[in-house]
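Section 5.1 Outputs to date
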Amino acid sequence: VSTQSTGTSVKNNNVNKIPNYDKSDIVDIQKAFKATVKAKPPNLQVTLADLQDAATKGRWWVVGAAWAGTEEGERSKKPSTIGNFDSKLLALAKKNHMNTEVRRNVFCVLMSSEDFEHCFEQLMKLNLKDKQEREIIHVAVLCALKCKTYNPYYTSVIGKFCGFSKNYQVTTQFSLWDRLKELQSLSPAKLSNLTKLLAALITSKTISLAVLKVVNFAEIGSDDVTFFKGLFTALLSNSEGVVTEIFGRVQPLPLDSLKNGMKVFMKHFLKPDLTGSELKNMKIALKCF
């Protein structure tokens, strides 16, 4: 009877009724199989150049195949280049102290692109990693300030990258903080460009007024007063709705000191020089505080 019962259980695939049957082994095998099936296969990172050079360098992605190139780690860490840049462009990069390969490549792409969309595509092809990506923003800000007159092209490039990833927003904020801390050492042309760059980035919501939290409005000098008067005047020249959005984005608790500083600055230094719509917009901005 026991033999017949066991045979029936096996036939019906009912292992629970088989006497003295230990199913722990089959359970372990099932778990191992499920883990293998669910595991995500690694990306091979095979590039077009790898495929084109397969005849001479070998196929590194094939197990056991010969390989005469660089290791994968070295290949991934090394930034790509778009091509051979013009000698005059490379000389200009050297003149502007682009003293690393990454900075030089970013500078040349910025200078040679057709527009900000084309620039974004070309810079993405550099395959920059981690800290290297920050150089895109740093170089773009440097170029924006060095122009003889304000060029909205660099603002568009920065805005494009900030819209692509929040990491670029953070880098932009740190880069602008560095500029705000050295206002007194900047030339009039650079101050003018920085004013317009900041105003454009804040108006487009690429960054917020929180970028000014490193500024102590109670201790700024006369040169700094001129700079911030220009910045706030540019911001207040927008429509009422945009002004409300710009000044309404400042968070209450963590930025109270910033709000109080801007309020005192606008009332004391800005209000006497404003008329018409700008004066009306200043009152709207103050209500946001």
